[in-house]
Design goal:
The radius of gyration is 26 Å and the shape is rod-shaped. The protein has one domain (2-70). A two-stranded antiparallel sheet has the order 1-2. Helices cover 72% and strands 14% of the residues. The protein is an alpha+beta fold. It has helices spanning 2-9, 27-70; strands at residues 12-16, 19-23.
């Protein structure tokens, strides 16, 4: 019900020649927009955490290799 009201509000009227053509925003467009919003909100924090954890493991690995090479 809510989506139909939004669809009616966000209709674009395009004038093509003599009569106006009404282009409706499809449900798929709304789904794609919702997914994009979620990816932007979640993706940043998730990507940051994955990057941070992988960098942490990489740094620890480099430190262990350096300690083995220097014989500490």
């Amino acid at each position: 019900m809510k989506k139909k009201q939004i669809l009616e509000k966000e209709s674009d009227i395009i004038f093509d020649g003599n009569e106006p053509l009404i282009k409706w925003k499809s449900e798929l467009d709304f789904a794609i927009e919702d997914i994009d919003k979620l990816n932007k909100e979640i993706g940043f924090s998730r990507g940051f955490m994955y990057g941070f954890i992988s960098n942490l493991f990489l740094n620890i690995l480099i430190i262990i290799i350096c300690m083995l090479l220097w014989g500490i």
